[in-house]
Automatic annotation (TrEMBL):
It comes from the Bacteria. GO terms for molecular function: core promoter sequence-specific DNA binding. Coiled coil: none annotated. Transmembrane segments: none annotated. InterPro entries: Antitox_HigA, Lambda_DNA-bd_dom_sf. GO terms for biological process: regulation of DNA-templated transcription. This is HTH-type transcriptional regulator / antitoxin HigA.
Amino acid sequence: MNIKPIKTRKDYRETLKEIESLMTARADSEEGDRLDVLTTLIEAYERVHFPMDLPDAVDAIQFCMEQRGLSVQDLEPVIGRRNRVYEVLNRRRPLTLRMIEGLHKTFGIPAESLLRQNPLKPGRKAA
């Protein structure tokens, strides 16, 4: 059977069934190669038709703070002085790459979420 693009929901369901039948295939086999290609096609289809709604940077930081019981003071070593932390949390200052890297390394916040920054509120500070 030839591999073809996934264009419809029917194609999607059929490809998922085929992937399921190939799950035990050895990686270094023809079936394993087919599984890799089909999985790539499924991922591409899902990215377009079922996009993940990741939180934005501030939502991700606030979720981390809530889950771990962190305070603004805990964020200061990564973001900067207290007023800067509040500016970020109030969406008045964007995260810098240094802040994103620090939040990801220190608190394990997914970089994908930290890179998603919503428009700033009026009263924006220069970065």
